[in-house]
Amino acid sequence: MLRQTTLAAAAVYTGVGLHSGQEVHMVLKPAPADTGLVFKRMDIDGQPTIKAVAANVTSTLRATTVEENGCKVFTIEHLMSAFHAMQIDNCYIEIDAEEPPVADGSSLAFFKLMQEAGVQELTAERREIVIDKIYRIDDEEQQRFVMVLPYDGFRVSFTSVNPHKLIGIQYENFAINPETYEKEIAPARTIAYEKEIEALQKMGLGLGGTLESVIVYNDEGWLNPLHYEDELVRHKILDVIGDLRLAGPIRGHVIAVASGHALNTALAKEIQKSLG
Fold it and tell me: 258 and which of 144, 228, 250, 262 could share a cystine (Cβ 3.0–4.6 Å)?
């Protein structure tokens, strides 16, 4: 029998939010069985909580937002991705702002933070979501889709389609376990097109992004060195792992073409809804 897990000790990380640009202090704390992954807003009176579940998703504009009890947290996908890969079921995430820190734009800092804290096995049985049929979400107009089908393990196959000559079509396929995730996926960072940055910032997005936390490209080339030649598709895999964790820990094969947060979280909602 698989058992639920939590962190063995508290872990602390301080940084800046990618979109808000705000300083944020984050503490990951052990939580008892059946708690789930729960954000706690320490900057608000009463310290309201927000469960990181698909039903609480309220926005997917450039990031995934969850909202409950009259408050929200956004850009949670990198942190959620690390939880999913580390197979951590229960944790309190205390933050004193609306957004977790961006770190270097990947999930590696969070993954290592959880590794250092250690994983504690609990006595309760783990409720893994074993995919027993095909779930699929399509955006026919944009020719995008994401689906998950039965598979004995957790695998992600992703095709990224980008018209830019530097990127084009990228494909990767990984069986997800902590070792593969740390080496092949966790270091993949958020990517932005230089021409879009000013418009994003006028929308109040990307205010905390720098060349230390975002890979930027223009029509001539990359403004900072890549961790991988196909870093974009690896980051897309990182994101889908995080977004689907909102449904719960998944056992299945995820296949996606040009999917983003909107389709990913719609799939998570569909899975969660079918489980009642």
Answer: 144
